[in-house]
Amino acid sequence: MMDESEVMKIFEEVAGALLNPHIDQWKKQGKKVIGYNCSYFPEEIALAADMITFKIRGTGCTETSLADSFLGRTNCSFTRSSLENLLQGRYDFLDGAIFTYSCDHMCAAHNNWAAQGKLPLIENIIGVPHTQTEHGRKWIKEEFSKIKEKFEEHFDVKITDDKLREAITTSNETHSLQKRLYALRNKDQPPITGSQVLSVQVAESSMPRDEYNRQLKTLLEELENKDGVPEFSHRLMVSGSVIDDPAMLNIIEETGAMVVADAFCFGAGKALRDPIKEKDDPLDAIVEKYYSQIICPRMFDGYPERLSFMLDVAKQANVEGLVLQNIFNCDLHGIDNVMLETDFEENGIPVLILEREYNLLADAGRIRTRVQAFLEQIRR
After folding, report:
1. Beta bridge partners of 351
2. Which of 183, 327, 351, 366 could staple 241 via S-S, CB 3.0–4.6 A?
3. pTM higher than the cut 0.70
């Protein structure tokens, strides 16, 4: 059995780059990698087609000179960074991509990805309703059915109900393992840092799923029998705009605090929700997961549930402060964070609001200073 540093090194290396040896080996076997932009993408459909589902990121992008020619700077720097990676050829390993209309910025990014013609886009764009209704549920099932048909047509595969059920079983195994990982964060002395947890979560969408589950099992066996980090100043929770760079949480934890909780859609929003329920129609089960459970400010009627979920996570992790961050021009999280600040402070949890760029090179010092000042305010 590998020691913990070797297992963590695998996850950290995968999370720290776009292309990695796991994808290289997968491609050499003639297998496919599909890129996606949003957690509303039904990954089980791609898993049933024996693909790696790859979360589109801006990793490795240090400037956006090419992307800025197509996307104005009023678009968030995440969308511009991911477009820059496409234009620079860093996504040439993808066999296709599929976009969800998660926000207007991402819709603009989709239009530019399509116009470039560098990758086949498997579906025009997945339309997800902004409210939860029975009509919306029928709509999204039709959308997912179209995705399944498009995958079968484009990649010449047959996605049967049995294959979907197998994919659901694999997805539920991932969920169970990640739930164990998040439970470790609730300990008085967690055996894993917040930045390490983020590496584990990002790696999920960057390597074959069976391999990911095997490595995570190994890591959990070691962590569950390991002493925790003995000294840190505060227990923090982080939420808001997408953070897929562990360096962001490293900056926070370098101040002496520990990030013990989050509410990211691919973090606690996935690990701490319910597993996919077994149903006669596996597509119905997948629809239930994505339409009813993901916590995202794009859903107009979802704030009360989102707040309740976040308060529960904070309570279980004994959080002493909440860092709400949003990428500049991210309206969804910017507005959501204002409401969350009020409600968390009313519940006795101090809040720091940060605006930042997706790329941390220019922001690291300012973020560190802001967090240090915040910790002084809540010093025990």
Report:
1. 322
2. 327
3. yes
